[in-house]
Amino acid sequence: MKDRFKPKDWERLLRLPIVMFQFVALADKQLQPEEASAFASEIQDALRYKDPLHRALFTDLADTANFKKAFEESMRITNTSVGAIEAEFKSARKILKKKLSGDEYNRFFASLTGTGMTVARSSGSGVDGVAPEEVA
What CA dihedral angle connects 73, 75, 80 and 84, to 10 degrees? Predict the structure, then answer.
């Protein structure tokens, strides 16, 4: 799956799960340790994903050097502005729409949304463990 993307595009896609994590985990303005632990577990369990892109991204993120690089760039983006976060998502979607079929695109985002819900549920607050801010 990785071979479909240019190296710079792959670097951007590696940031996508991290930006998604930050967006979900910080929706209630605080990062709970349970959320960070849930996200780390999701990355460590990369091979269980049926979606090949999700599996490939999380397999690469399980490498400490890849994660550190993607995390640092993600922090730069998320600390800039909401507009920067939106631009990051938009750019990633554009790359994915060019390289994936419609079914692959939808399957990937459904799988990534599952990770987001796992992170949101991990803190145990709100209905079904999800705070209202984390699904808005």
Answer: 60
